[in-house]
Specification:
Keywords: Acyltransferase, Metal-binding, Mitochondrion, Transferase, Transit peptide, tRNA processing. With 414 residues, the chain is α/β, with parallel strands linked by helices. Helices cover 43% and strands 16% of the residues. The radius of gyration is 22 Å and the shape is globular. The N and C termini lie far apart (51 Å). 5'-O-[(R)-(carboxyoxy)(hydroxy)phosphoryl]adenosine binds next to α8 and α9.
Length: 414
């Protein structure tokens, strides 16, 4: 434990006896022999402090997570210094919990993998400095992880998915379509030109004051919208999907958010209620925004599949679409994507909701993938920095737009 305290910047360098005590606290038995490589993964890029120990074959030996969602719901969004403070308060406990449930002694780890990009600077900094001190004390290799690469590769922990495959990453901070050709070989086909769908859903949920709704008070914005939408009629409001004329794979959500904002203000006037009270039509608005979001995402993804097939970047008959990120846990959006994959003879794969949102397992698994491929394993961490902004792969979105592929209309009967 003292070793971790030191890593958190609390104590000075521990003595040999303290290190021994620390190892003993993990029930380390010399008889424990792990045949596979073991990676400790640490994630602090946004508002979840998470850690996990995963072996080379994808067995999750231990995991722990501390979510800050409840705190940020109260402040109406993530306040970076608050997120930083919460990461600082929890990182040691979470890493310790992941290690102790795994029954793996730190000395048995093959490497430590940590998210270093992209994300909130203050949050990334906590995970990185903690990890670097741990790496230094344990004398283990360090594997810096790209958060979106980790989301994209998570599926390979669960299913036998070969490269290349198409990935759609939809979360609170990101929205992109990419072709995954290898562990760190991505072609970026399109991305959001403004905000991510999760961010938009979070903003709409806040504007609808869903935190005051008895059924949704502890849910993230996106989850609250999905929950409430089940009680609403999506046809009650007719929101047009964004960017209908742009024949590329980019996304946009700000315009839709503003339209919804206007409708809410108008409805508040009609119902004679104050901002902050819950509208009687909140469920209809939730259903309509979810449907429009699903249609927009489905259309851009449909075009990406057609582009990849046209250029022979994906198998004609055996193509795989992987959907991940926090918004991928939305079952309505998944169904819309299923309509697209059925129409294009693709297989749709989504990790379970727990692995779609931020977690330590995906970071540890990305470490395993990199270890196996011999990519980006550092034995010297001098000069390593976190990067709040970092694109994923080679951007070919302009070429995708120039191809101007017309997408056949599909009946979105969800
Ligand atoms: O991947 P994630 O945990 O964090 C990053 O943004 O990287 O995603 C969190 C986002 C939030 O915006 C949240 O509202 C959204 O995912 N989300 C959902 C659902 N569950 C979480 N959006 C739609 N439907 C859901 N069921
Ligand atoms: Zn994420």
């Amino acid at each position: 434990m003292l070793i971790l305290n030191k890593a958190a910047g609390v104590f000075s360098k521990p003595s040999r006896r303290e290190i021994f005590e620390f190892l003993r606290s993990f029930n380390f038995r010399p008889g424990n022999v792990f045949l596979h490589k073991l990676v400790l993964g640490i994630e602090t890029s946004c508002d979840d402090t998470a850690a996990a120990v995963v072996d080379e074959t994808g067995n999750v030996l231990g995991e722990a997570i501390h979510s800050q969602t409840e705190v940020h719901l109260k402040t109406g969004g993530i306040v970076p210094p608050v997120a930083q403070q919460l990461h600082r308060e929890n990182i040691q406990r979470i890493v310790q919990e992941a290690l102790s449930t795994s029954k793996v002694s730190p000395s048995e780890l093959s490497a430590i993998a940590t998210t270093v990009k992209p994300g909130l600077a203050l949050s990334l900094g906590v995970g990185l400095s903690f990890s670097l001190q741990l790496v230094d004390q344990l004398k283990k290799p360090f594997i810096p992880i790209h958060h979106m690469e980790a989301h994209a590769l998570t599926i390979r922990l669960l299913n036998k998915v070969e490269f290349p495959f198409l990935v759609l990453l939809i979360s609170g901070g990101h929205c992109l379509l990419a072709l995954v050709r290898g562990v760190s070989d991505f072609l970026l086909l399109g991305k959001s030109l403004d905000i991510a769908p999760g961010d938009m859903l979070d903003k709409v949920a806040r504007r609808l004051s869903l935190i005051k709704h008895p059924e949704c008070s502890t849910m993230s914005g996106g989850k609250a919208i999905e929950h409430l939408a089940k009680q609403g009629n999506k046809l009650h409001f007719d929101f047009k999907p964004p960017m209908q004329r742009a024949k590329n794979c980019d996304f946009s959500f700000t315009g839709l958010q503003h339209v919804i904002d206007k409708i809410i203000t108008q409805k508040e006037k009609e119902e004679g209620i104050q901002k902050g009270q819950i509208l009687s039509s909140a469920a209809h608005i939730a259903a309509a925004v979810q449907h429009t979001t699903a249609c927009h995402i489905a259309k851009r993804t449909h075009r990406a599949i057609l582009f990849c097939k046209q250029r022979d970047l994906l198998s004609q008959s055996n193509a795989v679409l992987v959907v991940s990120g926090g918004v991928a846990s939305n079952l309505y959006i998944r169904k819309a994507l299923e309509i697209v994959t059925n129409a294009t003879q693709c297989t749709l794969l989504c990790p379970p909701p727990k692995l779609c949102t931020d977690n330590g397992i995906m970071i540890a698994w990305n470490g395993v993938e990199r270890l196996r491929a011999g990519l980006g394993i550092l034995h010297n961490t001098e000069g390593i920095r976190y990067e709040p902004k970092c694109p994923l792969g080679v951007d070919i979105s302009k070429e995708v737009g120039e191809a101007a592929i017309k997408v056949p209309r599909l009946k979105m009967k969800i």
